[in-house]
Amino acid sequence: MSAVFFPRMRSLFSIALVLLVVLITVEASMKKKEKGKEPKADAECSEWQYGKCVPNSGDCGAGIREATCNEQTKKTKCKVPCNWKKDFGADCKYKFGRWAECDTTTGTRSRSGTLKKALFNAECQSTIKVSKPCTPKTPKLKGGEKKGKGKEN
After folding, report:
1. Between the CA of residue 140 and those of 67, 125, 145, what are the distances in Å?
2. Cα-flanking dihedrals φ and ψ of residue 64, to 5°?
3. Quick check: pTM over 0.70?
4. What pLDDT score was predicted for residue 59?
5. How many CB atoms lie within 10 A of CB 95?
6. Which helix (H) or strand (E) holds 61?
7. Edge to edge, what strands does the sheet with 108-118 contain?
């Protein structure tokens, strides 16, 4: 009887071990899937109000944007481009016209833009005017040198 009993125990033990490994693997994959999903409460809220992207350090780079809806609050990752230091912010996208001629009294040139898109429900002005310092005229080259790579006669 013992010759039949031990092989049967080994096979039951092996089956139990395989089932245990499968159960642990399934449970781990379920936790991974749940981790990536947003809570069900987020789906119920349709009017999220987003704040500005606040950089983690300095005035540009990776940061956090806070959003609220009813009593719920969530934080999402965002990025403020480092070349975007405009008063109207990176969430307001404008279509700009050409730069105006230099105003010699102020030393600046300006152009206006109309709102093209407001990201994250940002409050944006419908039209804006931006200005920058006038650039000095390109300096003349010394001794009649020509710019470029042409053959000389």
Report:
1. 54, 42, 9
2. -130, 140
3. no
4. 79
5. 10
6. strand 61-69
7. 92-96, 108-118, 127-133
